[in-house]
Amino acid sequence: MANHADIRYIQFYTDGSAARKIAPAAPVTTKPAAAPRTHKKKRIKLYVDPVAVLGIVVSAIMLICIFVGISGLEQAEARCAAMEQTVADLTVENARLQEDYKEGYDLQSIGAQARALGMIPQSSVEHISICVVTEPEAQKTQAVSYFAMLLTDLFA
Asked: Taking the complete model, does pTM exceed 0.85, yes or no?
């Protein structure tokens, strides 16, 4: 028989009456098949200005301070209204108590008892005016103490 390498025309398959040649199997590769590539998701970059963020934070803090101040003002107004009501009640009670006090004694009988005990009328008493003269050193110490008190109040 002839050497397989010497016969070249037999290598090619031709249609004819012969049985069909089975297609050769695909060559086995040593490399594994590459997995399909997944595309990386694009990162969304968000640029933040620190000055703008600081401004927003400061404005939020100021808004909170405004709300706290408004609530404090409302509480102060409520306390003021309560104190005004208390003063009005005490004024009415004071007027009532003065009326009760005036009705509780007689000025004529008290005056008669005082004269009987030796009291004299004010018109018959001699009035003497007294003038107090202060020393200049006392005025200096008062000025120094006033200045010291002013500084204490200023820096307290």
From this structure: no
Q: 15-20: list long-range contacts, CB under 8 Å, 24+ apart.
A: none
Q: Are 46 and 38 in contact (CB under 8 A)?
A: no
- Amino acid symbol at 6: D
Q: Which amino acid is at 47?
A: Y
Residues in the chain: 156
Which of 10, 32, 13, 9 has its CA nearest to residue 24?
A: 13
Cα distance between residue 77 and residue 68, in whole Å: 14
| Tens digit of each residue's pLDDT (9 = 90 or more) over 36-54 | 788 888 888 888 999 999 9
Q: For residues 9 and 4, what is the distance between their CA atoms, to the nearest angstrom?
A: 10
Alpha helices by DSSP H, the chain: 50-103, 107-117, 136-155
